[in-house]
């Protein structure tokens, strides 16, 4: 058996802040307000909170406990229980995939057959390890390539705010600044590539110094700063005349405004914002010591993450409504509408509010990027036996290089016609841009399937009873209140005697074994257009 990770968090707070830093990111501050805006406001917020509680929380706890129990990155974590061999279920699954692959060989787009065959063979030979590598290496890699680009825009906007270049009065004028960046027009490319580089470089420096001296120390400084800035912006928003319209939109639900897809969007957002279903939280959990209470930590992280999303929503919507702008603007919301709103704030301090807003967004994105980089580095160190320092340098350069593809192809494929042609030839569709394609693959395919795999592994293979033992290390009471639902929960009657009907442990186990997998399968089938 191979060695566990031997680095550990220095303190419980260090771990909490770092994991909250991973969770709180562009997902909370850039994406959450705009999808809320597009999906009708407060009713969507309610659905989102339900998704966090029903799907997000159980998975977060499952990942932390699996990470801590194994002490490994996902590429090795699953193996700890399967002895590095494929399991029966995985072999059968692999064979099914190969059969599907074979049946698609003469389909007009050969890409699908290739993907299915490769995956099928990998599953047959390596079993769960394949899933560990996809969730813990490939998925963060795909995300990092476009996440880094948005981080770059954000740094660019900090500079522009202080240079007085964001002084536009309305979103139409704002688009003259934002659209060239989105389209990577030749005249903005230098700034775009430089800020993208700077963003990856900053994260790389932190990861270079390791868990305790890099990630933990930086989180202890950055996270309080983030919250102070957020609160300052919320106070600014709330004290604007007309702020109450924004609050009403954001906080008083009109369920008629909800669409069916909104539920799925909320679930996808729950995965993304909590950094779960990708083995990142599992990797952070692997540096965790035995005396930490996983449940309490999980709740705190989720609480902080939700708080950040709600605060960001308040800051954004109060300003946007007070200034009479439209909240349903899509991804450009924070880059076009928000700066216009801050510019209208009486006192001519728009540059300052914008500057603070984008500094806050940069911090949020940075701590998340760090958490995307760390699993890649952890994997490279162990798989290729290289030093952490070398791994950080190599991986940063690689993700920057691939990220450039996203940077030049955010809005459309015009800059990369060759690549588009190849992808179209193999898969029939290439989305509207490289950026969209990466987000689509990561958010609609890898996140739900990764979540499903982790839930099934913990719920059925590792088993909820064993998982519960790990979860309960570090908690005071030694006994679990299992109950009537004990059978469905997978608990062992003798070890976990029956007590109350609905205990949190049973809720957790039922979620991991049944509710999460079923919901995820539904969401997934919906995403790929089957239902
Ligand atoms: N949670 C971060 C956000 O809200 C993004 C992120 C970091 C992430 N690590 C992740 C998303 C892992 C999915 C998986 O912006």
Q: Looking at the chains present, what oligomeric state does this protein adopt?
A: single chain
SS elements, strand count: 0
Largest sheet: none
Determine the strand fraction and express it as a percent band: under 5%
Radius of gyration: 23 Å
Helical percent range?
over 70%
Give the overall average pLDDT.
90
Q: pLDDT below 50 for ≥5 consecutive residues: which ranges?
A: 480-484
Ligands in the model, by name, code or SMILES, are:
tryptophan
Shape: globular
N- to C-terminal separation? 43 Å
H/E topology pattern: HHHHHHHHHHHHHHHHHHHHHH
Structural features, described:
The protein has 531 residues and is an all-alpha fold. It is built from 22 helices and no strands. The protein has helices at residues 12-23, 26-38, 42-70, 74-77, 79-82, 88-103, 111-126, 128-162, 171-182, 186-208, 210-238, 243-251, 260-274, 280-286, 294-322, 333-344, 350-383, 388-408, 417-427, 434-472, 486-489, 504-527. Helix 3 packs parallel to helix 13. The longest helix is centred in the last third of the chain and has 39 residues, at 434-472. The two termini are 43 Å apart. Mean pLDDT is 90; it is low at 480-484. The structure holds tryptophan. Tryptophan binds at residues 22-23, 25-28, 143, 272-273, 275, 278, 280, 368, 371-372.
């Amino acid at each position: 058996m191979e060695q566990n990770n031997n680095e550990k968090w220095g303190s419980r707070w260090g771990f909490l802040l770092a994991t909250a830093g991973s969770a709180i990111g562009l997902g909370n501050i850039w994406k959450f307000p705009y999808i809320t805006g597009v999906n009708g406001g407060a009713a969507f917020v309610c659905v989102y909170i339900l998704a966090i509680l029903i799907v997000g929380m159980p998975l977060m706890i499952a990942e932390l406990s699996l990470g801590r129990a194994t002490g490994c990155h996902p590429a090795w974590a699953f193996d700890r229980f399967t002895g590095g061999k494929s399991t029966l279920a995985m072999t059968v699954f692999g064979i099914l995939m190969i059969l599907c692959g074979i049946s698609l060989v003469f389909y007009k787009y050969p890409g699908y057959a290739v993907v299915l065959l490769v995956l099928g063979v990998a599953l047959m030979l390596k079993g769960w390890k394949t899933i560990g590598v996809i969730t813990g290496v490939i998925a963060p890699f795909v995300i990092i390539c476009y996440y880094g680009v948005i981080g770059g825009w954000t740094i660019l906007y900090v500079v522009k705010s202080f240079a007085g270049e964001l002084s536009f009065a309305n979103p139409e004028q704002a688009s003259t600044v934002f659209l060239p960046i989105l389209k990577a027009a030749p005249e903005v490319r230098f700034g775009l590539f430089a800020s993208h580089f700077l963003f990856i470089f900053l994260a790389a420096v932190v990861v270079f110094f390791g868990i305790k001296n890099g990630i933990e120390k930086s989180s202890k400084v950055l996270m309080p700063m983030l919250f102070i800035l957020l609160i300052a912006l919320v106070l600014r928003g709330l004290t604007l005349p007309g702020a109450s319209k924004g609050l009403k939109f954001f906080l008083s639900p009109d369920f008629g405004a909800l669409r069916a897809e909104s539920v799925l969007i909320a679930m996808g957002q729950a995965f993304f914002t909590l950094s779960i279903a990708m083995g990142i939280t599992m990797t952070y959990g692997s540096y965790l010591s035995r005396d930490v209470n996983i449940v309490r930590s999980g709740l705190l992280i989720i609480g902080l993450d939700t708080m950040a999303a709600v605060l960001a929503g308040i800051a954004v919507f109060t300003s946007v409504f007070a200034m009479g702008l439209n909240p349903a603007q899509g991804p450009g919301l924070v880059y076009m509408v928000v700066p216009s709103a801050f510019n209208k704030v009486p006192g001519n301090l728009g540059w300052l509010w914008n500057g603070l807003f984008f500094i806050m967004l940069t911090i949020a994105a940075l701590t998340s990027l760090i958490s995307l980089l760390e699993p890649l580095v952890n994997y490279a160190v162990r798989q290729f036996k290289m030093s952490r320092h070398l791994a950080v340098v190599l991986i940063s350069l690689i993700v920057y290089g691939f990220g450039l593809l996203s940077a030049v192809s955010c809005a459309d494929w015009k800059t990369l016609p060759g690549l588009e042609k190849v992808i179209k030839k193999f898969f029939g569709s290439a989305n509207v841009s490289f950026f969209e394609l990466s987000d689509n693959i990561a958010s609609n395919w890898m996140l739900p399937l990764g979540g499903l795999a982790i839930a099934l592994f913990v719920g059925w293979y590792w088993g909820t009873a064993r998982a519960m033992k790990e979860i309960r290390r570090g908690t005071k009471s030694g006994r679990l209140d299992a109950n009537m639902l004990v059978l469905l929960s997978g608990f062992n009657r003798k070890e976990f005697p029956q007590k109350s009907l609905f205990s949190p442990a049973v809720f957790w186990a039922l979620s991991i074994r049944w509710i999460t997998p079923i919901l995820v399968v539904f969401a997934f089938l919906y995403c790929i257009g089957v239902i």
